[in-house]
Amino acid sequence: xxxxxxxxxxxxxxxxxxxxxxxxxxxxxxxxxxxxxxxxxxxxxxxxxxxxxxxxxxxxxxxxxxxxxxxxxxxxxxxxxxxxxxxxxxxxxxxxxxxxxxxxxxxxxxxxxxxxxxxxxxxxxxxxxxxxxxxxxxxxxxxxxxxxxxxxxxxxxxxxxxxxxxxxxxxxxxxxxxxxxxxxxxxxxxxxxxxxx
Length: 197
Description:
Elements lengths: L3 H21 L3 E6 L6 E6 L3 E2 L9 H4 E2 L2 E6 L10 E4 L8 E2 L2 E2 L15 H12 L12 H9 L14 H7 L5 E4 L13 E4 L1
Antiparallel strand pairs: 1-2, 2-5, 3-4, 5-6, 7-8, 9-10
């Protein structure tokens, strides 16, 4: 089980990042519940995504929705286990089926507690707009077949989500510290001590 103090600190940090994301991107919004800080979110994505299967009788333009909602529950085992995801609105996508969401790299056995909630939210938005989908191991085979046959139409929404400022805040990177002693005439530049954390 996750340490309650660590979990609380994580939830506070996640909520601050979610507020920053909402401020930076008018195409992502959310409501939250479950306490202070919240542990439940209903995320609204304003982007093009399929709400039903296009056919000969139903053209693509009639199958595109522009507002999609996903529920995210940061349960008591979060962040050691991935959050519970539930698609709230209709969607036609290889990685969504009957409310279930499959996020390949974030399946329970592959989940990393280091993944910030904001990164997961952005990944879900990319999935909805068909920027990111997995046709080889789908939840919805019919949607996977459609995506494979219609790659030329994808992604459905080509707009980016956020500014470079938020992207930089959500990336984790190694920190390189250079300990460079004051230069002396007789010392060479290769005397620097480089440490990577």
